[in-house]
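Why do we bother with a discrete structure alphabet at all? Because it lets us treat a fold like text: something you can write down, compare, and reason about line by line. To make this less abstract, here is a complete entry for Expansin. Read it the way you would read a sentence in a foreign language you are learning: slowly, and without expecting to understand everything at once.
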Amino acid sequence: GTRKLAVCIAAVAILALNSLPSVLGAPYGWKEAHITYYGTANGGGTQGGACGYPNTFAMGYGVMTAALSYPLFQGGKSCGACYQLKCKWLAPTRTVHNWCWSYSRTITITATNSCPPGSHGGWCDWKPHFDLPMPAFMTLARREGGVAPVYYRKVRCAKRGGIRFTLGGNPYFMMILIHNVGGAGDLRAVKIKGRNGYWVPMWQNWGALWTCKTKLSGALSFQITTGDGRTVTVNRAVGDYWKFGQTWEGSQFR
């Protein structure tokens, strides 16, 4: 009777509220942040950064990347992680304008850089924020706005090919850039094994660069653990006759 009708009406109301952007907070599974942009209209000025990727275009990341604020960057632990962004609804007023194109459009970006505290406008000062290459920003919002409110959530990274290892350093201090990591994308632990046959823990030097001081020879294998706790073993990712400066490709998270 009347009680069942009231319960049905309440249930419909809850579903309706959950299906719309919340005026009180982010939808379930999403968090709030803002986006700004840097670089030029063709993505120039965004290739390097605090993760150690020398050229995001050459490495396959393109312009769909982001410099993360301090709370998100976590000293480089988020390098390689993927985030989905979409615009947050904002009621326009005489002093406030929402420059977003659409509230249903989403983009996915990879964390490749840091947006440090003290940057222009204070957007990166101790709050979640994404500073995007201009082309990535303009897929969500108008350039003239300069800044836009968004919702964000961490998502799995879809990468072409296998995990890549760029060999640097010297025989007694290996510095390996690990990139194109699928799955969670971000690295939490890395072990390396050479001809000696035992696993050697590496440590994060900075960004996506991992180091060990053990002299290794022969084919190199890796055990990689990502931020979600998954581990993949990449056997003989690097062949026997490797040289510093080379990039090798192994298997991938599935």
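What the structure line is telling us, in plain words: Residues 36 and 147 are 5 Å apart (CA to CA). The longest strand covers residues 106-115.
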